[in-house]
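Hi C.,

You asked whether I'd gotten around to modeling the 130-residue construct. I have! Everything is below, sequence then structure, no commentary in between.
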Amino acid sequence: MAPTILDYVNHVAGIGYAAQLILMGDAFMNDNLATHITNSAVTTMCKDSGMFIIGMRVAHYIVQTKVKDVEVKKLMTASAGVLWGTCGLLTLSTWGEGKAPNVYVNFGLQFFFAGAYAHQYLTMDSEKKD
């Protein structure tokens, strides 16, 4: 079972977020947060976060392309949905910190990916047990 179109779109979104955090952390925060503090520690944390996102993207891609166990792939799908859903809940709980229109875009993407991964998980075939 190869990665789905949803999985590839998720990788592109993740790499996009990571690139923004690594290369333009201050601009990313300015575009997305109503107020932000610019200093080297905050920018460094953005870069670190971006690197972790890339690491998780690579690990997720390796599992999707190399692991043959369908149940593992179902768990990866569930974890992706939970991750995006949790990000959506975080966005909602800190809505006042967000900056329009990007807070709407971010929440829309989070909602889309959470729902799409929930659908993918529920429609994936399980490995048949003999």
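If it helps when you're writing up: The mean pLDDT is 90.

Thanks,
B.
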